[in-house]
Design a protein that fits this description.
Oligomer: single chain
Radius of gyration: 29 Å
Number of helices: 16
Largest sheet: 8 strands, mixed
Helix content: 25-40%
Distance between the termini: 42 Å
Structural class: alpha+beta
Length: 503
């Protein structure tokens, strides 16, 4: 409870005319502040502590108790009452912590109080100095002996008592962070997740590296790239769709356990699980395979859950609890598809038979081949039924050109996709390291590209040359960081990205 009711903006969002009027008033205040020598934007203010630190140290004070400690702190004005001989202002720090400041005639004097009433608005950054006390109603406060505007806000804050529209949250994330605790929490959750991932890798002797974002040949995934032009080299370049081919070069060079957390760019659709620009984790482990890399991936996700939630059971934004603990399910793509479709589908099933099934089910496949049809039919029949975290194993060879052939099942490769919350979170391989077979796969991809598949990979001679120097048997994985945040928070992808791309 505060000692005075908070002044708020109008219940509805201000109109453009109202915003323009308020901006004009605030700009005039800015001008008068600067003319008077008080400064609307001082280079610094003498802060000695932070709002969270004061709350941690003195939050135990009872009503009417005093600390005996004088502090200087600053925060954004989020509530304000300017009447009589005592003004109340609530200051908010970047993490959302708040403290009340009391500006009284007795402590600051007549002129300072009058200036406070004239110049301070909601949204300003304000510095106050004074003793930490607990008010008569038990509100932790600073009884100010001095104050100073740290930064004048010339635009009004949105209504602090109503939700921002999704459009405003996406376009003006800075306002979302000021107003909404969940937005701030997602940023903290992401930071804890990244620290956890790096800690898990460090515990397993992985080295973090950086690979090029601008590439002369796009590769490492089946995706449509963004194209740009280098003036310096007078050549067409591609924004990275995946770091895989460069990370494998690092493995060839002797970095046996390597990972990268990077930005990838794919010139494709945007929806609740896809963003054209996104964060990706990829890792490669010499002398591992898709089984060992699955165990690593499970550990990475479970450790991240522990870091952000203190448990393998995470609570999503809507209150749903989701269990990421235990050993995760493993199912075969072909076997699960056969069971769901009610007929036997194997790597030998003819394309015509698969196409007929797709036609009956209304499943459209662009430039269909065996592998594409199997994967699209699997998504149609099986994907929606997955609830628990599940590794889907053993994919068609046609759709996995960088993956080693299965050691015992002809026609498939040692690849898994990890599904969590009904979406694909990660993928892992037993890596293809034979340069002869890799060249054959690239040639087949080139044929698909020539037939009109703009997601097919290009022939990368430099990568093939690296493989020819010998790459050890390896396991590799890739996981979307934004999607990992989705799994931990239950939010859509645009909510997990701090500044999502908005048209």
């Amino acid at each position: 409870m505060t000692d005075a009711p908070a002044a708020t903006l109008t219940p509805a969002e201000p109109t453009d005319d109202e915003v323009s009027e308020q901006k004009a008033v605030r700009l005039a205040k800015r001008e008068r502040l600067n003319e008077s020598g008080m400064e609307a934007y001082p280079v610094s203010v003498p802060v000695t502590t932070t709002i969270p630190a004061v709350r941690a140290k003195w939050g135990h004070l009872q009503a009417d108790e005093v600390s005996g400690e004088t502090v200087g702190l600053a925060g954004r004005v989020v509530h304000l009452r300017n009447t009589g001989k005592l003004c109340f202002v609530s200051l908010q720090s970047g993490d959302g912590s708040r403290i009340q400041a009391m500006i009284s005639l007795a402590n600051v004097g007549e002129q300072s109080l009058a200036d406070f009433k004239e110049y301070v608005d909601l949204g300003d950054h304000l510095f106050v100095s004074g003793e930490v006390i607990s008010s008569r109603r038990g509100e932790l406060s600073v009884m100010a002996t001095g104050w100073k505007i740290a930064s004048k806000a010339v635009l009004p804050l949105p209504n602090l008592h109503s939700e921002l529209s999704e459009e405003t949250r996406m376009r003006s994330r800075y306002l979302d962070l000021i107003v909404r605790e969940q937005a701030r929490q997602v940023v903290r959750t992401r930071a804890l997740t990244m620290a956890s991932l790096r800690s898990t890798f460090a515990g397993r002797d992985f080295l973090e590296v950086e690979t090029p974002m601008l590439q002369t040949i796009h590769g490492g995934a089946a995706a449509r790239p963004f194209v740009t032009h280098s003036n310096a080299f007078d050549t067409e370049l591609y924004l990275r769709i995946a770091p895989e081919l460069f990370l494998k070069r690092a493995v060839v060079g002797g970095i046996d356990r390597v990972f990268e957390i990077n930005r990838n760019f794919r010139n494709e659709g945007a929806d609740s699980t896809h963003s054209p620009e996104f964060a990706m984790l990829e890792a490669y482990e010499s002398y591992g395979d898709y089984t060992s890399i699955a165990e690593l991936t499970q550990t990475l996700v479970q450790n991240a859950a522990l870091a952000v939630a203190g448990s393998h059971v995470v609570t999503w934004a809507d209150g749903t609890e989701y269990d990421l603990g235990g050993e995760w399910d493993r199912i075969s793509m072909y076997e699960s598809l056969s069971a769901a479709a009610g007929l036997s589908i194997t790597p030998e099933t003819p394309v015509a038979e698969l196409q007929a099934l797709a036609d009956r089910e209304g499943v459209e496949v662009h430039l269909p081949n065996h592998g594409k049809l199997v994967e699209e039919l699997w998504e149609h029949f099986v994907k929606g039924s997955l609830v628990r975290p599940t590794f889907v194993l053993d994919f068609p060879v046609e759709t996995s050109p960088l993956t080693r052939a299965h050691r015992s099942i002809p026609g498939v490769v040692e690849k898994w996709d990890l599904y969590v919350r009904g979406f694909e979170l990660a993928t892992g391989y037993s890596e293809l390291v034979d340069p002869v077979i890799q060249r054959e796969r690239f040639v087949e991809q080139a044929k698909q590209a020539a037939a009109g598949d703009d997601e097919a990979m290009r022939l990368d001679e430099e990568f093939l040359r690296a493989l020819e120097f010998g790459m050890p048997p390896s396991g590799g994985m890739g996981m979307g960081i934004d999607r990992l945040l989705m799994a931990l928070t239950g939010l859509g992808i645009r909510e997990t990205i701090l500044f999502p791309l908005v048209k």
